[in-house]
């Protein structure tokens, strides 16, 4: 849909009967109108003069003439329509909509007003209302190709792609050389995933209109989706040369996918959000952040993407805070609880007008600011962690039996965000057929309706109506992920969440995936615990899940030994059991090696089952257990720091202080275990003796 502003030209010039036709518009503009007529000048004269002045770029005078026309005739639809156009160009959108509405109230079949109203509503992203205006326009003028093309654009944005395609074809039938309709036809086909069909339409649009940069950009997107990367890069280069701003960021994303982070981030910085440049969309008020951290610097970081991207890039917010910046992170309120453990980061969902900052940056611009290269992606997983109380809640709800796989299959349904990324739930059926496997849905919202129509023999467990039902996103999901053996998901926010938690996660990707997953790699530099599975052919989910199932089979069988009795029963103190459980929980949250995590989670599952079977969970235990886990977490970090000292041959005061901290923390640990033994009447009580 062509949304560029054009000079308003009325349907026809209206010459009132009393006007001597020797008086041309030019003459009227050169001399005062007053005195040329018997009595007040007709409204039409003021309107015609206003139109001529507007088309000559003399806006203030044009507005005066229109005001005069409307004073002379308040029910003048043509003047109201031109007034609406001028107000829209000035950014006074609500006033413009009122003017168009008034014009149509006096002349309901006024095609120009309907078309302009629809275009303004389209630009305001009020697509349902825009479509209603375009529907009326095509009903009034069914042979008007522009009307059908406008309608196609609104249908496309509403996700009604097949209808959009029909409207495009109607416009092309009415005007065979209609380049914009040809382009829109290609775009509808691209969003339907019919890339081979779409490519000729972009090529034809280029042929119909010289230097059609938008068509070249579309061609680049199609070539990229087809895996023809060199040709795609050439198309983007040509579109950039012709001034297409979207192609700069599209070129950057392609370079990022190809591993060229140095050039890629520069192009990515030119991305547009909701039709605005990045800086305009975010409302830049403070200096851009350079990426160099200055201690005490007040840094405003602003969210500019969806939930998955925010989780991915939020690691940089933590890095900036640890380096000494005073970081305020402006992000959706529903993520604040998930990010609550970010030390030194202030989380807000709005900025007060009185607040000032030394610098600001978009969160997804931070990799560029930090100079991130493929070999230097910061991956300090886990950088998110589940809440202790929720861990306990979902451990009880899920149970310890079976090989538990958390699954998510549907991403954002917006066709702009989800072209071929979502997976049919039925594709997971081969996983459900493996022995001892439990599929547990961690899907929320759109896509959940597929649960009522599963293939025969396929079972998927759900977690109840209260699962992440509150205002905070992913807090329950994070706790559930900590209690499953593996997450298998499509390319959606769940993949980022599991990766940030350091949990084993396998991601099912379409044939040419998003830039962040790079090319032909089975791993991700962003998330060490992640494994990537890619379609061999576009749209072939069955083949991809056959490979996932084959890779999973030996792991499942390892968790389900055919020979019983491999786990032996040994006597032990109850405090020792709870202590071991907290240590295993810490390991499951902090380890990234998939093989080690499987063993840790297997042992944790067995011990949690033992605790449950022996009914060792009275309410007073909760506080002691939380304290014991905190001590063990501090011991973990202290021992890590000791090893760093050893690696650096640093046996000075820092090493001595750390070594002293170990025995002090072990004393606290022993005291807590003793309290637990007394609370639960343990038959075995550990004893310690000191020199």
Structure description:
The protein has 691 residues and is α/β, with parallel strands linked by helices. The chain has four domains: 124 residues, Alpha Horseshoe (Serine Threonine Protein Phosphatase 5, Tetratricopeptide repeat), CATH 1.25.40; 98 residues, Rossmann fold; 172 residues, Rossmann fold (3-Layer(aba) Sandwich); 107 residues, no CATH class. The protein is built from 27 helices and twelve strands. The strands form three sheets. Strands 8-7-9-10-12-11 form a six-stranded mixed β-sheet, sandwiched between helices. Strands 5-4-3-6 form a four-stranded parallel β-sheet, covered by helices on one side.
CATH class of the largest domain: Alpha Beta
Q: Structural class, from helix and strand content?
A: alpha/beta
Q: What's the total helix number?
A: 27
Name the beta content range.
5-15%
Gyration radius from CA atoms, angstroms: 32 Å
- Percent helix, as a range, is 40-55%
Domain count: the total is 4
- CATH fold-type name of the largest domain: Rossmann fold
At CATH's second level, what is the architecture of the largest domain? 3-Layer(aba) Sandwich
Main beta sheet, described?
6 strands, mixed
Give me the CATH superfamily of the largest domain. Answer: Glycogen Phosphorylase B
**Weakly predicted, low-confidence segments:** 1-25, 33-39, 561-565
Spatial arrangement of strands, main beta sheet: 8-7-9-10-12-11
Distance between the termini: 84 Å
* Total DSSP E strands: 12
Overall geometry comes to elongated
Mean pLDDT rating: 87
